[in-house]
Every structure is written in structure tokens, then in C-alpha cells.
Design a protein that fits this description.
Layout: E1 4-8, H1 19-41, H2 47-79, E2 84-99, E3 111-119, E4 122-126, E5 150-157, E6 166-174
Antiparallel strand pairs: 1-6, 2-3, 2-5, 3-4, 5-6
Length: about 200
């Protein structure tokens, strides 16, 4: 069986995909500086500028620093062979959205998207496209999950028994047979290839 690696956690330790958090933090700090200078020019203090200063620093430090630390921690676990592995066909693939609208504050409906697969009896859940160290199907092109897709996963459980805390560190796919799954059959059953009889 030929495996294709479609995702592997970045082991460089650079955290380049988290640089936008630094830019967001710097943008908020720039606004805070402008508000502070404007208030100072009028002989006042700006509590909004102080709030934005703290917020911008937190966005930059936590968004970049914590995510880079977490990525390094997960990459070391994969390199050391501490990751668990599961292999088999995808079953129970679903994408759904959760209504997270706050009726007291929001004027429009807000949703959070989720995606789940089960492989070898182990369920995985993630926010598609989220900026976090492990797999969230944010790469280009995204993996087109469907029931019967044969995958091999290396993962860690940050919280045992919690599907949304299973962090996928490496994802490989393979084609089994011609990829046609028999409806209602136990996996990994595949439909036989029918060869027309010669006349």
C-alpha cells in the first residue's frame, strides 16, 4: 500500500504560521499609542489606550508564544515516538456548525464550524481551518474526507478520552482497491472490480 503524507506538524520550531498574531498585536499597540498621544496632547489620560496596550501585548505574546511553544512540544513528541497511531478507513465523517450567537449582544447569527472523523474506533474533532499547531485541515489543498478514505494518523491526547483534545500530528492517506466502498458493508470492504466478459 502506498501512503501519501498530506500533513505533518512543522518541526522547525519557527512558528511562521503564527506570525499574524504578532502583526495583530502590533496593530492594536499602534492604535493604543495613537490614542495615548492624542489624550496626552489634551492633558488627559486614556483608559482605552491602556486597555488596548494590554490587549495588544496579550494577542502578540499569547497568540505567537503559546502556539509556538505548543507546536514545539507536539513536534518533539512525534520525533520521540511518543505519539499514538491508528490506521483504517474513515467512518462517520461529518461537518456541522454550532450556533454560538449571544442573544443579548449579537445582532446577527454567529456559527462555529466543526469537522469529525472516526478511524479504528478513535474519534477526532477539530475546527476546520483554525490557526493552531496540530491538524485542522487548514493546508492547501484541504483533505477531502469521506467515509471509506483509508488513513493513518499519528496523534497525542492532551486530555485522555476527549475527542477534541486528540491532536493529529501526521496524516497519511492511501487508496485501497479502486476506492469504491460497498454500501452497508463493514469497513474496509471494497466493491469488486467487474471486468466485462469477452464476446
Amino acid at each position: 500500500m502506498n501512503w501519501t503524507v498530506v500533513y505533518e506538524i512543522d518541526r522547525s520550531g519557527a512558528g511562521t504560521q503564527f506570525i499574524p498574531f504578532v502583526y495583530m498585536g502590533l496593530g492594536v499597540l499602534a492604535v493604543a499609542l495613537i490614542l495615548h498621544l492624542r489624550a496626552r496632547r489634551h492633558g488627559q489620560r486614556s483608559s482605552v489606550a491602556r486597555f488596548l496596550l494590554i490587549g495588544g501585548a496579550l494577542i502578540g505574546v499569547l497568540g505567537y508564544g503559546v502556539n509556538t511553544w505548543d507546536q514545539d512540544r507536539l513536534a518533539k513528541q512525534l520525533a520521540a515516538g511518543d505519539a499514538q497511531a491508528v490506521e483504517g478507513p474513515v467512518v462517520a465523517h461529518q461537518i456541522w456548525r454550532e450556533d454560538v450567537t449571544n442573544p443579548g449582544k449579537d445582532t446577527a447569527r454567529r456559527y462555529r464550524r466543526w469537522e469529525t472523523i472516526t478511524v479504528g474506533g478513535v474519534q477526532f474533532i477539530w475546527h476546520p481551518g483554525a490557526q493552531e499547531p496540530a491538524f485542522t485541515n487548514a493546508q492547501t489543498p484541504a483533505v477531502d474526507f469521506h467515509d471509506g478514505l483509508y488513513v493513518r494518523l499519528a496523534y497525542v491526547e492532551d486530555v485522555p478520552g476527549q475527542a477534541h483534545q486528540r491532536r493529529i500530528l501526521r496524516l497519511e492517506t492511501a487508496e485501497v482497491g479502486d476506492g469504491r466502498v460497498l454500501p452497508g458493508a463493514p469497513f474496509p470492504s471494497v466493491a469488486p472490480v467487474v471486468v466485462p466478459a469477452a464476446r
